[in-house]
Amino acid sequence: MDKKILVTGISGFAGNYLARKLLDRGYNKIYGTYLSEKSIGSLFGISSQLELFQLDLMDSKTVYEVINKIKPDYVYHLAAIASSVQSFKEPNFVITNNISSQLNLLEAVRKLGLSSRVMVISSAEVYGKVNPVDLPIDENTPLKPANPYAVSKLTQDFMGLQYNIAYNIDIIRVRPFNHIGPGQSEQFSTSAFAKKIAEIEKGKSEPVLSVGNLEAKRDFTNVEDMVWAYILLMEKGKSGDVYNIGSGKAYKMSEILNMMLSFSSAKIKVETDLNLLRPSDNPELICDNTKIHKVTGWVAKIPLEATLKDILEYWRKII
């Protein structure tokens, strides 16, 4: 396909999977931005098919120059600091980075007068502490962000809406629920569990797994299903609109952990670590994916158990 596609944060967890899926889809003009040289190892096997730019999106001048050079038809804006845990520790850094990076990108599109379609990646975290009567969560559920990361994503979300309304820029907004898979940072729970289990199995760690809140319920989607949803919405979504993306099923974190422990023969003791508890934690997030299904036909296809097994196998190979 002839459309020029820019993926910011292409060497990140979702960006890497998205680039591969776009190539499979037949897109052959794919550009990507990355921040650190060491991160591009994730693009092994496909980097020769991409045109990559090492770019700090906080640098508005360079962002403008890169957008002017590419003049993309589609922009998937994935680059962001995605950790709610880090946002409690460094709220100013996370909020400033996530908001300013997107602002620089949208300003470049606006000033250049491009007709680019831009996908703004928000987050289900924007819904925060949801009243049980509002579950499952659809796009009209009240927004109650409960951590600094969620505030930054809500700002990105509404910034996209504002640029659509004020400047008629073609914006698609998405609110993905938890997405997981091999290669995800150990900052995230399923990856952290898997890494620790793999270390214990190989005798590199004491048989104790420290955890935070295991009562929270989350909606998990395989990252490959998630990036396929991004592609379908970029192709079929309505300009200015917002779409939730999630499997429609929620599991307690204790269920997730028990499932992963069942894949191992090691005897592992689970202990709660108060340092892993957040100042606030959303008790339950479960997606109502009716809207995206109606527009694109998308459904999550990869079973959770298979995904968790793949994550554990990933860590077993590198520990």
Protein architecture, described:
The chain has two domains: 4-180 and 222-248 and 291-296, Rossmann fold, CATH 3.40.50; 189-217 and 250-285 and 302-318, UDP-galactose 4-epimerase, domain 1 (Alpha-Beta Complex). The model has no long low-confidence stretch (mean pLDDT 96). It is 40% helix and 16% strand. The radius of gyration is 19 Å and the shape is globular. The strands form four sheets. A seven-stranded parallel sheet has the order 3-2-1-4-5-6-11, with helices on both faces. Strands 7-10 form a two-stranded parallel ribbon. Strands 8-13 form a two-stranded parallel ribbon. It has 319 residues and is of the alpha/beta class. The chain has helices at residues 13-25, 60-70, 84-89, 91-111, 148-167, 189-201, 223-236, 253-261, 290-296, 304-318; strands at 4-8, 29-34, 50-54, 74-77, 117-121, 170-176, 179-180, 208-211, 217-218, 221-222, 242-245, 251-252, 269-272.
Strand and helix layout:
Elements: E1 4-8, H1 13-25, E2 29-34, E3 50-54, H2 60-70, E4 74-77, H3 84-89, H4 91-111, E5 117-121, H5 148-167, E6 170-176, E7 179-180, H6 189-201, E8 208-211, E9 217-218, E10 221-222, H7 223-236, E11 242-245, E12 251-252, H8 253-261, E13 269-272, H9 290-296, H10 304-318
Parallel strand pairs: 1-2, 1-4, 2-3, 4-5, 5-6, 6-11, 7-10, 8-13
Antiparallel strand pairs: 9-12
